């Protein structure tokens, strides 16, 4: 079995506790690697290493162009190792190999993009109404950034933070999910090979309440970029506030996917299926509430069931598989628990919602995609994030009712509307309370644009040209003759 130590100061470092825990393949249920159980003592070592690297001339004094060159080399190494990284991630998380191999190559794009932006950040010259007085604003890095990430897309969600943070000149300590740590240790090794000076990128592993909390509270940590669930996000936000640290929080969702009467139904059904059932529903942006106009409700439900009947469920390492296992045991239990909650609330289970049995399902950690109809928006199944392949279909009779239901949630991560009318689409764009709105598509994302949540779905934004600003502070410089 492979053993992964912590990665601090450009080398593997055993945890102070001397303890390791197993990381398990969701498909087989077998442990395949041992992961270091870091503690507060290791958090201190890692943050100090990152702080020393931030102040060291090898990082502080290099030009932004040179930083970009290192990040470009990092990206090229990620591509060169994409298959290996993808296999590790697939093993740890149960993601479909077909999906993860594309996703890892996408990770490299994030580094290329921010490598390109690194030396194009000009600051601003500010007009001052006094002769002989000159003022400009410099954008400077913050210092040590702590990136805390979840298990559902370990490399990708880390890259969203890492690439702009490094491009802006910070140093980083990554704390991946305790369920999916291995690929991040491998990534950090590639960073060193690419030329990142020792201590610029560190990865420490272990549990959120132990090492995660200690990283956030460390006095030398200046910024926390967090992706995860509500409880973790709240704990991180409160701990960071105590130390006056800025945060970016990418949290959960209960995103509405709205099919209007004039939609192209074939296209909308395909979008609804990938919207909720992609990655077995384990995505923050999952379109878990499908709002369907009365006139097409039955046709849409029939179409969804038809697609799911032929979906290939099974071994995620098979390129033909379309629906893989649930990533962790607790998550699997939680999803099946929500199916029971929905039934007890009176929702009608039209399809799936059970764990299939048979040798083709490995250790059995699967959920057959579930479709519920007869859902009203005040049910728990419509208000709480399941983070699994469970779709709630909710009827509406006019556009205003659809908008009211769509916005009747404390989340605001994403939303979609399917219609042939540009005018109606723009009305929905105007009124939907969500950080991302898709028109006639679902799940489109790119490193070139912004992503983040309204309301309880988060604070701050990732991606796009402005994301480096999340990792900078401004210095106002006054010059007189
Ligand atoms: P989680 O909150 O349990 O864990 C996320 C990370 O936070 C892990 O590394 C964990 O160890 C750490 N953590 C937990 N408590 C902590 C604490 N008190 N202090 C410091 N660190 C702590 O989330 P998860 O179950 O791994 O991921 C699923 C959640 O992530 C879902 O709610 C999903 O919606 C969300 N998510 C959001 C986005 C987004 O971009 N908005 C993307 C993917 C996932």
From TrEMBL:
Residues 19-477 form the Aldehyde dehydrogenase domain. This is Aldehyde dehydrogenase family protein. It comes from the Bacteria. SUPFAM superfamilies: ALDH-like (SSF53720). Keywords: Oxidoreductase. PANTHER family: ALDEHYDE DEHYDROGENASE-RELATED. One of its GO terms (molecular function) is oxidoreductase activity, acting on the aldehyde or oxo group of donors, NAD or NADP as acceptor. The active site is at 250. Belongs to the aldehyde dehydrogenase family. Gene3D superfamilies: Aldehyde Dehydrogenase, Chain A, domain 1, Aldehyde Dehydrogenase, Chain A, domain 2. InterPro entries: Ald_DH/histidinol_DH, Ald_DH_C, Ald_DH_CS_CYS, Ald_DH_CS_GLU, Ald_DH_N, Aldehyde_DH_dom.
